[in-house]
Specification:
By secondary structure, the protein is an alpha+beta fold. The protein has helices at about 1-15, 35-130, 175-210, 215-225, 240, 250-275, 400-405; strands at about 20-25, 30-35, 285-290, 295, 305, 310, 320, 325-335, 335-345, 350-360, 365, 370-375, 385-390, 395. A hairpin with a 2-residue loop joins strand 13 (about 385-390) and strand 14 (about 395).
Amino acid sequence: MVKRLLAGPWELIRQRFPDRQIYHRSDGQVRYFAVTTEMQVGALAAACGLAIWLTISTVNMILESRTDMIRSARFNETITAYQAQLEEARAAEAAAIAFLESRSDAFDRTAGEFQVRHDTVRRLLDFAEDLQIGERQLSPSLDNGRILMAASPADTAPRESLIRTAAHTGDGSPAEERVASLMTDQEAALTQAEESAESRLENLRAVLRLTGLRLEEVVREGRSGDGGTGGPFVALDSSALMGEGLDLSDPFNARVARIASRLVELEELERALAATPLNVPVSGPYRDTSPYGSRIDPFTRRPAFHTGRDFAGARGTPITAGAAGSVVYAGWRSGYGRTVEIDHGYGFRTRYAHLHTIDVRRGDVVEAGQRLGGMGTTGRSTATHLHYEVWFRGNHLDPERFLRAGHYVQ
């Protein structure tokens, strides 16, 4: 069946490719090769197969080459993109490092400035603490537990700093916020110290002014007693507080310098106030019998000037020091009887006359309110009483002004 089907096409092939003979003569001999139809068809098939294989291989090579080119192009694009990203990352890294270095430098500078501020504020607050300036008080404590009362109406409006320090601005980082918080605390501490110092200074000035004396004279007298100095009333020597070489053009340093000057002035005025005889010199019942000034002399009945104030009481009533000081005289003085005189410094002296007994000796250092003796009637006296005199720079003054000022120091 198959042979009959293939017989027709095979006959056509035999007609197309009939058997052939190839003759070859060599050395007088003739030889031939028979090339049958099968051999021709086989050769043709082999040639066609080779051609097809070559065609397919060539096409495959072309396609593979194109694919490789595409892959290579994509790879090159990827490499280029990676290199661009790498350059960007390196640039970003360099920028980040530069930013961190700048921030680190800025932070170091801020930390250094903050440390200086902290040390300055700490020294200032330590000094203020020595003066018992802390929380704002209307009646701050003086030496020996005495209380300074407000001698002038308190301000109705809170005080404000004359020099505003620049507000700290940061980038919102935790470290910056922490530094800003600490600086705010420092500002609050400075404000509190400044307000307390100003309030206390006003009270001190008011109390001292009630004595009728000029503050400049009192302070200058106190300085001259320390070896002779001069200059204006408020001498700023705050290097111990602020350290050397601070730039006072900086608002913070200027403010600290101003507060330091207030504290120095405050310390000086408190020393002056402690030397001012403000206490009543009698510890016990008494009555006023003769004020300071013009009067009729009880012995001669002629006009005279009374250089002190008389306090009458029972014999032996304790006589106490009007302020702290040293006893410069204790004994009998003509006209005064048994007398005690105390040098309080700052040009102040007090005299206690007509004493019945004397409990101190020359050279003794006494505290304010310390007993000096007992009330008596020795010397030029008509009855038991204390003749009390207050002297400043060699001139006697009205003791009433000092006792009135003493009402604000209890």
